[in-house]
Amino acid sequence: MITQQPAIVQEVAMEATPAAIFAALTDPAQLVQWWGGDKYKVDRMDVDLRAGGAWRTEGTGGDGHAFAAFGVYRVIEPPHTLEYTWNYDWSDGDAVQTLVRFDISERGSGSLVRVTHTGFVDAEERSDHDQGWTLVLGWLHDYTARNRTA
């Protein structure tokens, strides 16, 4: 029997507007600037930003190996909601398609960003992605803070 793992839910306050955050999450030119850190570098991001449109990112890990993550957009409601399926090629071949959702709300002069990632059937895979989203939200926070305009 397959047991569904609990959803990953993380929130972070950011100084940027919802529109700036949404753009950072959907504009390929911006995504390649901030998504990644010491562990890996995104080299390419393809985005067909429409419900049913595909996205794909390719990059190089810290160990020098190529990687890809990809999926299909399901909900696009600028600047507050972005939802897409999530697949990747670095598993042992048993990765299950999961679902990622960003909810971005105004909070004071900035925003509150909530990411929810569901569909995990493996506890270790869920834990790895939970740690990954902590990194991603940190990178997004730092990028939008550096690129904030008054």
TrEMBL record:
Residue intervals of the Activator of Hsp90 ATPase homologue 1/2-like C-terminal domain: 16-142
InterPro entries noted in UniProt: ASHA1/2-like_C (IPR013538), START-like_dom_sf (IPR023393)
One Pfam family cited in the UniProt record for this chain: AHSA1
CDD domains (alphabetical): SRPBCC_CalC_Aha1-like
Family: Belongs to the AHA1 family.
This protein's name: Activator of HSP90 ATPase
Organism: Vulcanimicrobium alpinum
Lineage: Bacteria, Bacillati, Vulcanimicrobiota, Vulcanimicrobiia, Vulcanimicrobiales
